[in-house]
Design brief:
The chain is mainly α and 334 residues long. Helices cover 74% and strands 1% of the residues. One of its GO terms (cellular component) is plasma membrane.
Length: 334
């Protein structure tokens, strides 16, 4: 009988239950893995519902779980309606062009893109693309630079003050500078990327690269001395020493930095989108706040929960990748 390889899904607590034999699945383990998280969520929903009924704002009652659920459904309905309008737009355009060609085979045919308003799910997709672009760019800078800093005490001494000065700078301070630099440098009649995307991406990069840089340099600097001696005895080249000894030994620290960087990148992006009014979830929240309708608070709460869920999902994905690439299969990674 084929058995499900639960190791592939070990980052999901539920799947870990099935790694054990049936007689080992106890009620206590089931309670710990499923019962306690479910109980915690239900308790949170209860207190949220009670507190919401007792909070009056200028826009009405603070939204409880039921109101937020209804607003989430309305956002789904708006997205479906917008996609339907887009489909009908392209169908009408295709039919109009076909009629033109039927009358005149040499007619000048123009195809116009649909310019409808972005839906809530479009904003989520925009934020995801932006944060992953900024995070990948930050990682591409931080990991090689961290390795170099970790291998050289001289470079570490030279760059440590710079890193410590720029590390705590808020995205709200970086954003005006990034916006001005992008506007001055990125001047073209046919832009490949929107300036709003570049502003958000570079702000995310500047704020999120530090945890990966510092953790990588610390991991490289603390490679086991026995492994260093083996490398010296074998007379490995610098590149081979880095590839065979340094990087595998530093993977746990590198991934710790990557997970911290990704969570910071996600938080920074939302703030940057709100401040600069760049497309994404942050702009959605700010627009709803400015809208001031009776549904606004419920929609903002939907966005808050979405932001939290996506942040949790991104961290789980990074954890799964770490479990895949980590050489120590017995390490307790959480």
């Amino acid at each position: 009988m084929n058995r499900v390889n639960t190791n592939r899904y070990s980052f999901i607590p539920l799947f870990n239950l099935f790694k054990y034999k049936n007689n080992e699945i106890s009620l206590v383990r089931l309670l710990q893995k499923i019962g306690l998280p479910t109980g915690g969520i239900l308790l949170f929903l209860f207190f949220w519902s009670v507190a919401a009924q007792n909070i009056d704002t200028s826009l009405g009652k603070f939204p409880g779980p039921t109101e937020v659920f209804n607003q989430a459904n309305s956002l789904v309905a708006e997205h479906q309606a917008e996609r339907l309008r887009e489909t009908e737009f392209y169908q009408r355009q295709q039919q109009r062009n076909a009629d033109k060609l039927a009358k005149d085979p040499y007619a000048d045919i123009k195809t116009r893109p649909y310019t409808g308003s972005p839906t809530y799910f479009d904003q989520i997709l925009t934020s995801m693309i932006t944060v992953l672009s900024g995070f990948i760019l930050a990682s591409a800078i931080a990991i090689p630079l961290g390795v170099i800093i970790g291998l050289s005490k001289t470079i570490n001494a030279a760059l440590a003050p710079v890193i410590q000065i720029f590390k705590p700078v808020s995205p709200l301070a970086w954003l005006p500078l990034v916006t001005m630099v992008v506007s001055a440098v990125y001047v073209t009649d046919d832009p490949l990327f929107a300036k709003s995307f570049l502003n958000s991406m570079f702000t995310v990069t500047l704020c999120s690269l530090w945890p990966t840089l510092i953790n990588t340099s610390v991991g490289v600097a603390n490679v086991n001395s026995d492994l260093i001696n083996v490398s010296k005895v074998l007379r490995l080249s610098w590149l081979t020493h880095t590839r065979k000894i340094v990087l595998p030994s530093s993977i746990p620290m590198i991934f710790t930095g990557l997970r911290l960087s990704l969570s910071i990148a996600w938080m920074v992006l939302i703030a940057a989108e709100m401040l600069a009014q760049n497309p994404g979830l942050g702009k959605f929240v700010w627009d709803e706040f400015q809208n001031g309708s009776s549904n606004s608070l419920g929609r903002i709460m939907v966005a808050v929960l979405t932001i939290g869920f996506i942040g949790f999902l991104l961290d789980r994905i990074m954890l799964m990748i770490q479990q895949r690439v980590n050489w120590d299969r017995h390490a307790d990674i959480r």
